[in-house]
Amino acid sequence: MRVALIGAAAAVYYGMALSPELTTTNAILDAARTPAVVAFPAATLRDPITIEPDKSNLDRTAIMRRLFKSIKGSATDDQETVLRVAEWTQSYFVHPMETPLRSNGQGVYDPIQLLKVRRAQCGQVNRVMLDILAAGGYRGRIVQLKAHHGAEVFYGGSWHYIEADALHGGDQIMTPDGRLPSAAEIHANPNLVDGKCLGCEVLLLDTWLSDEHRERFDERIGYSISGQAWREVFSAVPYYYEKSGGTNDPEYGWLTYATTY
After folding, report:
1. Nearest by Cα to 220 from 198, 194, 205
2. The dihedral of CA 206, 207, 210, 213: what is its sign?
3. N or C terminus: fewer CB in 10 A for the chain?
4. pLDDT for residue 201
5. C-alpha to C-alpha distance for 116 and 33, rounded to whole angstroms
6. Average confidence score pLDDT of the chain
7. How far is residue 69's CA from residue 259's CA, in Å, rounded to a whole number?
């Protein structure tokens, strides 16, 4: 008997019902085949995004574990695994002009809801990346910098800065020997950001700008490409947010955290 049929079609064929968690995971992985920067026309990135709390009782941790396993693939070490998750997240999200919010003005950090809308700002996107990595056993924390939230992941006995929002195409800030440094290392050695473009994926989508703003836009592109924008971001001493509770609150644990310098 042939058992090679897979996916939703196979489940229907054999009279089985896919779980809501597997259906959701499959939908996210299917959507990931098209980068968000392609899926969303630039003009839509100006639209406000309102998301109400999820009441579906989905097992969000189960979904995150499935995503981690799929994204990790054949990665054999910590850095390769982290880089794969970061690159996937970079491609999956696009940065809108407005932060997705609840109707009461509260920020949205539920990873499944953000994965469904695919538009989120730095603190949200980097939290989703950390949640995927946490599902694979990695400890992570949000890094507060100057006007930016980045992320760090702990492995090999130290913290490593990783960026899922303001860099794209798999790009990361690396040391000359190919290692992911910590945010504190970058703060102490800002030369590491030279040539790194802050948010250029979205800047290049700014086609709605009027002619009178074009010169200012071009200046911003130059400022970002040179690494000066990243130098400004890392001019602040890093400040850290790490989950300290469980994942049962409406924002998947991001309502309870410890802060440290």
Report:
1. 198
2. positive
3. N
4. 83
5. 14
6. 90
7. 29
> How does DSSP classify residue 139?
E
pLDDT in tens, 41-79: 877 888 999 999 998 999 999 999 999 999 999 999 999
The one-letter amino acid at 47 = D
- Can you read off the two tokens belonging to residue 93? 């999200």
Q: How far apart are CA 64 and CA 113, in angstroms?
A: 12
Is pLDDT of 6 > 60?
Answer: no
Q: In what order do the strands lie in the sheet with 139-145?
A: 158-162, 148-155, 139-145, 239-243, 257-260
Give residues with Cβ within 8 angstroms of 48, minimum separation 6: 98, 101
As a whole number, mean pLDDT of residues 12-30 equals: 83
pTM, entire model = 0.90
Whether residue 136 contacts residue 149, with contact meaning beta carbons closer than 8 Å, is answered with no
Of 199, 183, 198, nearest to 241 (Cα)?
Answer: 183
Mean local confidence (pLDDT), 199-212? 65
